[in-house]
Amino acid sequence: MSAERAAYAPVAAPRRPSPRSASLRAVPLRGSRAPRAPFVVLVLLVLGIGLIGLLILNTALQQGSFELGELQSTTDELRDRQTDLADRVAARSAPDALAEEAGRLGMVPAEEAPRFLELPGSAGTPAAGGDG
């Protein structure tokens, strides 16, 4: 049992230094601030680069807008031209315009209905002497 008592025996607390041995003194204030100039230069540099980037982006968008306007006007002109050409084709394809053009070329209207010749061996009738 003496071993048990030794295991559970109180241990002496470590010694604290006496107030006289530990001398506390005030630490002088030091300028622990970082210099502001590099930070200000960095912020101004970032803002300047951002501003230049926005100006370049705005210029590119404006140039694209002008190109788009030019392409739209070209598209309108080509659409008008296509409509005009389609109208001209329709006018020249009309029966009275075709008859007038045929008269200028020296063609005359047929007096009789057309006749079709059926030759032996043609696709419409069987050939002479054929099986069928």
TrEMBL record:
The chain crosses the membrane at residues 37-57. Keywords: Membrane, Transmembrane, Transmembrane helix. Residues 1-22 are annotated as: Disordered. This is Septum formation initiator family protein. It comes from Jiangella ureilytica.
